[in-house]
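Support request from a user on the community tier.

User writes: "When I paste my structure tokens into the form, the page sometimes reloads and wipes my input. The last time it worked, I copied everything first. Here is what I submitted, just in case something in the input itself triggers the reload:"
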């Protein structure tokens, strides 16, 4: 399984696995793209119920194994409802690692940082499908990432891979010409954000981080009341 959804997703996941004629006991590994609540929320419970292993990239390890620490540095609203607790990692992933899920079914790990420093994508050899987690920000979505240059490089890396099917956490599956199109749209969105931040700075940036965040949201025509510390970090990343 790639990522585990939020804590409340447990019955949905269990029912889905059972609808396939399988049971939770058949779940062997959960491969995590990164440590954020909507990707790890249900991992602890699934591990407890199924005995599966948790695999994740080492830079994300502490945030998965110590969720209180994650909350202290990344106070996502509703964090403790979304995340059902810390979970220990059984296997550390590394860039370019080949994981054999079955004899002829290989999944390759691809480091795609930017959204978070340790974010990875998984490329499934069969069907040439690429699971990208949150590596591709959709235009108009709340912009959440930590590193701008790395983010753009990851978009290029995903483009160069030329996968046939793109499976992003917050989007419908994409294929064919839709893939370069969504990657281009995401890159344009980042450039639009960069330009909004530059214009805000030129026209008098507030020294208060939340107010600065509101100024940028307003310029981007995004909902101003949604200004929060995560967006502050994203916009700050453009100034670092
Ligand atoms: Zn995320």
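"...and here is what came back when it finally went through:"
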């Amino acid at each position: 399984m790639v990522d585990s959804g939020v804590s409340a997703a447990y019955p949905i996941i269990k029912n889905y696995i059972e609808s396939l004629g399988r049971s939770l006991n058949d779940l062997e590994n959960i491969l995590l793209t990164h440590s954020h609540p909507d990707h790890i929320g249900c991992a602890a419970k699934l591990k407890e119920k199924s005995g599966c292993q948790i695999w994740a990239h080492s830079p994300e390890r502490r945030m998965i194994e110590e969720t209180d620490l994650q909350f202290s540095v990344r106070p996502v609203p509703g964090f403790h409802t979304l995340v059902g607790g810390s979970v220990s990692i059984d296997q550390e992933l590394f860039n370019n690692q080949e994981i054999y899920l079955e004899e002829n079914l290989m999944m390759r790990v691809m480091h795609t940082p930017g959204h978070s420093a340790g974010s990875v994508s998984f490329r499934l050899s069969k069907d040439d499908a690429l699971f990208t987690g949150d590596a591709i920000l959709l235009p108009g979505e709340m912009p959440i990432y930590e590193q701008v240059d790395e983010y753009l490089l990851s978009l290029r890396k995903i483009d160069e891979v030329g996968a046939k099917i793109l499976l992003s956490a917050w989007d419908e599956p994409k294929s064919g010409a839709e893939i370069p199109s969504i990657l281009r749209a995401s890159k344009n969105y980042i450039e639009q954000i960069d330009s909004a931040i530059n214009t805000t700075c030129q026209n008098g940036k507030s020294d208060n981080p939340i107010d600065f965040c509101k100024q940028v949201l307003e310029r981007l025509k995004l909902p101003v009341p949604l200004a929060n510390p995560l967006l502050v970090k994203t916009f700050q990343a453009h100034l670092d």
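Agent notes: The reload is a front-end session timeout and is unrelated to the input. Strands lie at 29-31, 53-57, 91-93, 98-102, 105-111, 120-124, 129-133, 165-168, 174-175. The first strand starts at residue 29 and ends at 31. Escalated to web team.
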